[in-house]
C-alpha cells in the first residue's frame, strides 16, 4: 500500500516524470538492442549458422558463394528493424526470406532470426 501525504499534485507530477523517463530508457534500450540484432543477423550469414549456433545445410551445388549469399545480396543485406515502446521487430525485405527461415518443400530450414517460440 502506498501512502501519499502533502501536495498530491506535486507528487503525481513527480511520478509522471519518472514514468516518462522510463519510456525514454526503454526506447533507447530497444534501439540499441535492434542494432545488435541486425549485427547478429549479419554474423549468422557470415558464419552460415542460425541464431542458436546450428550450421546451415550446405548448398546442393557449390557456386563459390556462401550459403544464402545470392547474386544480389538482397536477402543478406535487406533486414530492417521497427522499434516500439516495448521492443523491436527484425523483418526481412526479401519476400522469400520466410521460405528459408522455416523451410519449404525441398528447401531446408536456414533460420536467420530467432524463433518467437524458442526465444533468444
Write structural notes for this entry.
The protein is mainly alpha-helical. Helices cover 42% and strands 10% of the residues. It has a two-stranded antiparallel ribbon with strand order 1-2. A hairpin with a 2-residue loop joins strand 1 and strand 2 (87-92). It is elongated.
Compose a concise summary of this entry.
This protein is mainly alpha-helical. It is built from 3 helices and 2 strands.
First-residue to last-residue Cα separation: 36 Å
Strand content: 5-15%
The pLDDT mean sits at: 87
Helix/strand order, N-terminal first:
HHEEH
Major sheet summary line: 2 strands, antiparallel
Q: What is the helix tally?
A: 3
Number of strands: 2
Low-confidence stretches: none
Enumerate the strands of the largest sheet in spatial order, edge to edge or round the barrel: 1-2
Secondary-structure content class: mainly alpha
General form: elongated
CA gyration radius, whole angstroms: 21 Å
- Indicate the percent of residues in helices: 40-55%
Amino acid at each position: 500500500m502506498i501512502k501519499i501525504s502533502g501536495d498530491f499534485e506535486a507528487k503525481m507530477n513527480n511520478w509522471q516524470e519518472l514514468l516518462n523517463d522510463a519510456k525514454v530508457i526503454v526506447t533507447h534500450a530497444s534501439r540499441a538492442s535492434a542494432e545488435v540484432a541486425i549485427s547478429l543477423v549479419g554474423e549468422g550469414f557470415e558464419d552460415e549458422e542460425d541464431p542458436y549456433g546450428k550450421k546451415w545445410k550446405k548448398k546442393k551445388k557449390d557456386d563459390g558463394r556462401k550459403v544464402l549469399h545470392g547474386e544480389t545480396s538482397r536477402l543478406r543485406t535487406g533486414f530492417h528493424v521497427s522499434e516500439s515502446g516495448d521492443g523491436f521487430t527484425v523483418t526481412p525485405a526479401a519476400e522469400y526470406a520466410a521460405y528459408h527461415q522455416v523451410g519449404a518443400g525441398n528447401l531446408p530450414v536456414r533460420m536467420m532470426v530467432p524463433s518467437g517460440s524458442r526465444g533468444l
